Amino acid sequence: MIRKLSVISALTVLLVYTVFKMIKYEEHIRATHIITHVVKDERQALLPEISPDEFDAILKRTRTKFKAGKDYFLIRNENEQWQRFPLKGVNMGVALPGKFPAEFSMTYEQYYDWIKKIGRMHANIIRTYTILPPEFYNALADYNLRHADKPVFLLQGVWADIPKNHDYHDYKYTRNFKKEIINVIDVLHGNAVMKPQPGKAHGVYVTDVSRYVAGLLLGREWEPDAVYQTVKQNSGKNHFNGKFISLPHGNPMEVWLAQMLDFAVEYETRTYRTQHPVSFVNWLPLDPMFHDTEFIENKKVREYDNDLVSVDFSRFNATENLKAGLYAAYHVYPYYPDFIFLNPKYRDTLTGRNDNFRLYLEDLKAHTPGMPLVIAEYGLPNSRGISHFAPSGFHQGGHSELQQAALVSRLTRDIMQTGCAGAIYFEWADEWFKHNWLVMDFEIPAENRKLWHNKENPEQNFGILALEDQRKQIDGKDNDWQNDLPVWKNNKAEIYGAADATYFYLAARMPRLNFRQHNLYIALDTYDPEKGDRKLPFSDTLFSNGFEFLARFLSTRKADLLVDEPYSVFTDIYNDHIPVYASQPNANGKFIPQLMLTNRKRESLTGTVFDSVVINRSPLQFGNSGQAGFSNADWYWKDGFFELRLDWHLLNVSDPSGRKVLDDRPGTPQIEIAETEAIRVYFILTDKNNRIIDIYPPDRPAPVTWDKWTQPRFTQRLKPLYDTLRNLFVRWEFPEKSTKQFTDQEDFLVEITPFAMDKNAAVSLSFEGGFYAQYRWALPLLEKYRLQAGFSLDPLHTAPMTEVSDYGGLFPETEKNGWTQWRAIARKKHELMLIYRNEQSINRFRSHLQSVPEAIHTVSGHKPGHPAVFQRPLLLENKAYQYQGISYLHYTPTRNTELLDRFLNRNQGKWMIVVYRGIYKDSLEIQKFSAGVKKKFFIDYEQFRRQIRLIRNKDYWVAPESEVYAYLKAKKSARILTRKAGNIHIVHLQTPDFHSEKPVVLTLKIYTKARIIRVWGSEADGTYQNKEGFILVPLKTGNTMKVETIK
Amino acid sequence: MSKRIVIILSFFLLLNTCTERKNKNANPNGNASVSQSMLPRVLYITTGIDMNKTDKDLPSGINLALQFFNARGVPVYLSPRDILYDLDRLKTFGIIIISTGNGIHDADRKYSLTYMTDEEMQNLMEFVGSGGFLIAGDNTGRNTFDGKDRILDKGILDRTAYPLSELFGSRFKELNTNDFRVKGTSALPVSLQGTLTDTTENNRWMLVPEITDTARVNTLAYWKNKAQSHPAWLEARYGKGMAWLLPFSGWLTPVNDGGDWSLDRIEAFYGLALHKYKELHPSPFRLGVWPDGKKAALAVSFNPEGDMEQYRRILEALREKKVEPVFFVNGKMPEDIRAFLITSKSRLSSSGFDYIRYDQADYAVAVNDILRNEKYWNYDFNGFRFPFTSPAFFGFIALERHGYAYESGISVNNREFLHGSCVPYNIVVSKEGIYFDTHIYELSPTYHDDYFFLKHLGEEIYLSEEEQTKKIRLWNEYLQMHWKKVTLPYSGLMVYLGHPAYTGYDRNTLQPLLQLIDTARADGAWITDLDHISRYRDFINSCIVYVEQNGNDYRIRLAVDEERSVRGFTINLPFEPVNLSGHLTTPRVEPGEKGHFHLIFDARNGVEIKFSKK
Question: What are phi and psi of B70, to 5 degrees?
């Protein structure tokens, strides 16, 4: 037994040893074949540090074909000279009908064909939003090799998702975005293998197209909410000094963007010794201007606050290492947000040109100095439906193809003539998967949206290249009906029906029809014969089927498609009327027009009301759809042959590919649908008095049905816009004077600006009386708009209180702050003030006053006598005052915001103190006060919040009183001492009593001819691009800064 | 050797003439259905690769001509202008291209084609008169050979001062073309209509024709401004042939290389030229570019770098695939590898002995390095690859003198930019006033090699398995792309350029090459070694194919230097031949694409094939 065990043990040991050796051998074999697998630490830097010498060596060998000049892109020509290169091109989505963009279904040949067409249009740019499949880059390289005389360049986008917590600074999110930047750059240089991932292109990218890249464009239309949250959550991040991008002062979102741009440039420079001009996507809701007509007054409005926060290109600077430069890229449409046509600035009353787009561009260009401004998206759709109405005529939709061409021509010329650096039309081809806010709820199921073409959905109809399924032309000719059998016929009439991915078609051969003598009605039962109206308005007959729609044709000028009242999808958001989108059995013969609310009612900050706009979609256009001017024509009649086409959405068909119609059920959150077998029709011929002459068919309606589909048929066709843009793009119109030139300043001149950051005026918001309502209502608003204000402590009530108390004893509006509130106010870094009525009142409250410093110390941590606590007498008159030689205007606004607006506009160049006291929400309670008291001491919250926004919108310097006072006082006495050492200027800011006074930050305006300046020792160190002939740098009194002129 | 070719070709021309007479004698009534033609060959007159430049690349204008014509079974021969004095040789070509632009290395003024003697021009006229098609650039022969401008005497160029004036049926004057554009007429294909050239400062004063013989001269494009119009692009019929005179030679050079036109337009231009030639010489047949009707060619080559195991791994894997690679060898290689390559009977080519930079070597150093390597390996090398990708003038002289047949160092990348050629071509070199054509064929390797993608293997850069796989996939994709996009469309040649140290590093790194072989085989490629390719190309470029048609009966005859012969010579027929018979060879027929058929036979001088159309 022991021997047996010994043998077994020995064999086991031998086996273990053999296995061990085999494993070792395997490892050895692997080691010789496969290089050591290093698991990368996710926290490891994506770009390792390198020495300055290495960096300089790389930089010296870095080449760039394009660079962003002052107003335009520049391209290096064969003679190594830089030439202006306006970007003329298209945005290219790649979703073919039946596909989502992320399916990347296009072939090499299809990409090549599109690029070829785009090249023939004299376009020189294709903008892509994300990495496309290798076939695209292969096609681009091949096309450009073959057409080097007129290559098509690429503006390559880097797609950005929305961060989950709306914080772009989130570590994981940022790291992933940087990885995406790396992927994009590797793809462009033909050095990437992208693994299959849902929603992303994949494949092996071995074609180096970097020579055909004009620039990189990061991100997307950043959602204002996400930007706002990022700003709010990262308040300390307000500057960035990178190797390539410098942002001496900006908001946290701008800081993040600067970091991403810097990373992109550094990666491409270090990895490929190449640079391209860089930018990020920006759009109107984040533009640097403020718009007084933009205000979300109703929470029911499902829309962004489109003027809440800014991302301002003018704060971004390219350092001397960024040879390729920075440019600005904006998406600008002439119809959205509403401020682009509501803001009086963009209404040209002088020339009557009615071109709000141009005026906006001029404003935008003025706010984007020193860098090319590329309009990276603009355009108008040729949909039948309108989803946003613009008084200038630039509606979102509702244009024929001919109108689309004419209007886009105007927009393109505007872009050229305002000195913009590029016009990139949105978009190259129609994309059926796109949704639009107005109709998206009725395209059900949403995933089938890509299977059909909704002509009521403008988003699907922007294309220059029509991707369409229109099997019948509405032209009164029966040639395209030859292969169709009539759904009904007798010796008087023949009725035909058909369907495709875009339209439901009806045709009829009715030799008798004559609109001078007849009216024609078509009653349509779209589903469920039991539902719908069994009675028609002009007849007492009760039909066996209920009808959902009634088309009436009274003449070639008067025809419409009415809907049975319960089945209308008109939704009144303001009155909470959300109908049940289903047909109801009835017999009242009431058919109504199909309405849609396209523009919501608005009220500007100063009280101007802009009414809502409701569009009637019912009128049916008579015309030959083969003519570009009638591309949206609905019907035609000629020689007894009648043709009608109705886009599916007009019939409440939610998905024609599955024969689905709206059939909502009450009480459920979603909208339900039902399947229909067929649409049943009657053609009813009446005389001009609507007396029925004939009904076809006479007994029961003729059913028109169609086959379902899972993949749509479609064809390609160039719209007239193609030739229009071709004619425009062949030669770019440069304006005579693109932008203002630098004035002839001395080489280096420094002055102190009248107000901080050279603003036109200063406003101090002062809240007096220590009301709790100020804490409750004003504080959140100030935080929202990032404004600092002053709050006066009430010596009578502050000291002993720890909680809110109603010293007035009347009602909540007179409650006063307790220490909890004061502490919160101080923590938000607002100023605490002592406002005294007069010397007598000081005496009277002496005991309280004695305790105030201690109270201040308790709530704010400030030592007694600290200058952060500002003291001044109580002022009640709206007039000019002076304090120790410093003038200011005192103003207490009433609820008339327009008066405040006038006051603010009138007093540019001055310091204005705007005082608020009581704020109330409940108008009933406040009625207890007399009108005089109300006017002087109280303002309702609704107006108050408009006024705060109005003050923010003026873009003045908004700062507490002590800050403005200190600035103006220091400015009076400060002296600037400069001396030069080589290319470094040493600037010292001296005040006579700087030893005793608290240092004050003054803004210095430095005029220089140098293009790039580096500053250190200031309050906003970094590299500055000299965009306008000067730079603005904040510097503390008593401090010295160095200003190096680099280029 | 070239003299011998000329004598033999002349002999065959004579024979051809006699045969024609015989035929005519046999048909005293002059049977109108008998027609004779020659399958087209193109002569591109150029000074070739400019060895004074750092980039030893073929001018891209020539590259495009090579690509275009090769894809259509028309060989292109490159030659310096010396050939203009040799009328008999000129007549062996169907199309002659004389480009006077700097883009095709028109060299210095002394050797420029704008300088011509009357004799040279007479020869060109005779070439056209006898049925040739001439494409001449601007100012062709404008100056006498001693540099005098022929227009200076009278301010006009007519037949008294300029023989080509008669050929083009025009006289010429100078015009300030500053605000003119050249616009193609509607007689041209769509892509050649509209503005063909915007004038620039450089082409202000131009020779502009005034047509004197309107009966035989057409204008295909005009100089136009708002007020005036002058002929610019002439098409003249002359004798049995036709000639084009272009306003710019820059048209033939792509804009990527400083020329005027896009590749598409240049191809449309050559397409029209070929169409015109076929109008003059109708023949339904086309030369097959590669033997046995193969569509393209693939060869595998390796530079020296790697260890024994890697060499062995490669050889085993390739022999399993029935592919013989060529190893370029030098005198620095380890003894064991040398012994292995010799004993394994591998195909070898030379890369010189000492791994020197030939562009810095004089003739003595170059020839010494070449011969020393031959001695060291005791091998009669047929091909050469310049180390450091530095082809050099003296190196070419030395190789030509010592009978080398090919060079394989000027890489090709015609996807991302224009560089090199996927079509083998006879090298014409120039340096400091010396211009000559060699019998060395350039067999261009791919632009990137395995080192470009897999260099981390030799640099101790540690990559994860995933990253390493990525590099291999990139290399694989590059090869596939090169094959599909650069080689196949032009019926070209792809030369794999590898190193045993990278390609043979392990089984994974071998995969891209093996996959390439599979792809090429599936695409109907001729996979062979560089020796065979150079020999075949030399035959194609030297061979004249005559076609005689009598009703539905055809006779094909070959005239070529006696020394040359190849297997699998292919002619593409648009119908299936019957009654096939051959003289000195046994032809066979294989189906091709699109209802065409390949007539395949072993070819040498004097071969004749007869067949009929059903």
Answer: -60, -40
